[in-house]
Amino acid sequence: MTQASDAPAGATRFWNDPANRALAFQAAVLAVVFAVGWYLFHNVQANLARQNIATGFGFLGREAGFEIGESPIPYSAADTYLKALWVGVLNTLRVSFIGIVLTVILGAFVGIARLSTNWLVSKLAGAYIEVLQDVPVLLQLFFWYALFNEILPSPRQALSPLPGVYLCNRGLLLPVPEGHPAYGWAAGAFVAACVLIWAVRRWAHRRQEATGKLFPTFRVGLALLVGLPVLAWWLGGAPTALSVPHLKGFNFRGGLGLSPEFAALLLGLVLYTSAFVAEIVRAGIQSVSHGQTEAAMSLGLTPGQTLNLVILPQALRVIVPPLTSQMLNLTKNSSLAVAIGFPDFVSVANTTINQTGQAIEGVLLIMVVYLMFSLSTSAFMNWYNKRIALVER
Amino acid sequence: MILRRIATLTLAAVLAAGPALAGKTLDAVRARGYVIVGVNGSLFGFGKPDEKGVWKGLDVDTGRAIAAAVFGDASKVKWVPLTAVQRFTALQSGEIDVLCRNTTRTLSRDTALGLDFVHVNYYDGQGFMVPKKLGVKSAKELDGATVCVLPGTTTEMNAADFFRKNNMAWKPVVIESTAELAKTFFSGRCDVLTSDASQLAGTRAVAPNPDGYVILPEIISKEPLAPAVRHGDEQWRDIVDYAVMAMIAAEEMGITSKNVDQMLKSKDPKVQRFLGVTPGNGKALGLDERWAYNVVKQVGNYAEVFERNVGPNTPLGLERGLNALWTDGGLMYVPPFK
Predict the structure, then answer these.
(1) Are A350 and B230 in contact (CB < 8 Å)?
(2) Which end of chain A, N or C, is less packed with Cβ atoms under 10 Å?
(3) Which own/partner contact pairs does A366-374 have at CB distance under 8 Å and 24+ positions apart?
(4) pLDDT of A264-306, one tens digit each?
């Protein structure tokens, strides 16, 4: 007691200093987090050791021994677990990427239709949104998958709407060009066209700012995008050989196959997610006051220019953040593929977990892979969001 | 949904303080008042509730036998339906006490998965089922076929091995739920359904037109189906093991659920020891001396269980074959109960 009164007036004690206290609290929290983490880790190690369960990631190098139904890269049962999981990652990426692109297009279309002044179009879009939003996506997947399997004929009775194109319960089979270097050049030309368009746009923008003259960027861009690859293909010898699917034994050989599992998953995810995207797009457009449209019209802008230069730049600021979360939803929902037999990452990882018994490592891998998908999608969308954000002065 | 389940089980495995200490399982089961048994849930003849919601099947009766041995009451069981993918995590994490889910004993499951398998309750082998109209007579004619298969099973690997060995192309369609897989096969998405022969028979029994499907003659693997427990609790392992074997031993001694009460008066010392008239076996296992009597009285011997669930008079129509007693040329052979 006497010591307290001895302290010089105005000087705070060490433990009364808010900065020191904050530091102490943070250290304490950190210690607790580490202790809990260490306890969990140690507990797992001890439990697994006692039950004789294998640990570690050594299994990744072993032969997988199971087949995967569809794979964008060559894979066989003799390959390693690592390769099998990689096939799963690629399958998830494939369905997510195509799904996101289609969702955004379809969602924007339905969202705009929802705002149409045509009563029928607007109500139809409304019904689409309400129905698809409110039915659980897993049920929708089961529905599409069962529908494909029930209504499509067997390979021997395959429908052939166009020569070389077959539709049966093994999937949609399309003729594809046989491999030829000219296609590689065409792909290169496509990339070159994209770069060229970017340059043309910059130049056109500068010219417009300097002289006020408009340049038909869109039409020129389209011509470049189509023209350059076609030119490359023609210069490469214009190969026309096709790999046409043909029935051999039980199944079709050759051509490109789109399996019912992939189609059902893609359709289910796109229809479900696009209903949410449609609402986001509608909200975004409605957030721009109608006065803006009237002002743009009175300046003499065409409806197209009004949409592109006035409405969209403002609407996108409202649309992009929730759109990002819908993209993430679609990617995560793609793990429902397990239910209808599409070999996505979770499906392959599940089989791996089951065969190796290493559930903790497997679930860790699943978490890390989905985290990477989500973080990279977010990073890209945040970058895009910054670009289109309102520049405040 | 499925992912969440696996994740929950994993979390349980992470947090579990120690479900597998020796002797602990029996204490936990007794304190709880019932045995938690992991079963198939949708496999007719092995583990599936009937239209009244009563669980039926060979694996289900095995679970009942364990409850009868432990509690003297075959109804003290909680059934947990599990998919092939979920089953081992459920056992490892302590969610179930014993797994009776047509599970093949293999080396890697015995070791790396930390399981202990007990006596086989069904000797099986993998086969192929095809629609009759396909006109296939042998599995060797299946080049290029699309094959429906359950994930996380020995079947999945056996099929891969079989097609590789015979240099045939194939495409698997892998669906986790047994019911959904069967529906997909019956809709014609696959040319072939491959699984254990007993499971094929069980699936065919629930087909819209069972006569439209044939099981091909080739059996491509050995599938000794056995109940499994966690590694590390020898007492619990013994109890489960002997509950299964008691049914087989009872058949060998001619004891059935009908005549077990008369058999109590038998002069045969072997029967007296088995039924606990001469005490000793119960104490050794840590159970009531009447444990084997309760198993036979309430569940039946192996022949009764087999006939009731999968035998020739059931829709599965399976013959005893490998599952006959050793005295009848089968593989069912158990150690003496003394």
Answers:
(1) no
(2) C
(3) A366/B3, A369/A89, A369/A92, A369/A345, A370/A331, A370/A332, A370/A335, A373/A92, A373/A93, A373/A96, A373/A331, A374/A328, A374/A331, A374/A332
(4) 999 999 999 999 999 999 999 899 888 988 999 999 988 888 8
Residue B239 in contact with residue B288, Cβ under 8 Å? no
Chain B residue with Cα closest to A253: B144
CATH code for position B82: 3.40.190.10
Q: Which residues of A88-100 are buried (b: 16+ CB within 10 A; e: fewer)?
A: bbbbbbbbbeebb
Per-residue pLDDT tens digits for B82-125: 988 889 889 988 999 999 999 999 988 888 888 999 999 999 99
- Domain range for B17 is 2-123+225-317
Cβ-Cβ contacts under 8 Å, A68 against chain B: 172
- Do residues B155 and B241 share a domain? no
Fold for the domain defined by A81-178+241-388: MetI-like fold (1.10.3720)
Partner-chain contact A359 B180, CB within 8 Å: no
The domain spans of chain A are 13-50, 81-178+241-388
Over the stretch B269-290, which tens digit does the pLDDT of each residue have?
999 999 999 999 999 999 999 9
pTM of the model: 0.77
How wide is the angle at C-alpha A278 spanned by C-alphas A276 and A280, nearest 5°? Answer: 75
Q: Is residue B337 part of a domain?
A: no
Q: Does some domain include residue B332?
A: no
Q: Is A157 on the interface with B (CB under 8 A)?
A: no
B330, part of any domain: no
Judge whether residue A5 has pLDDT over 80: no
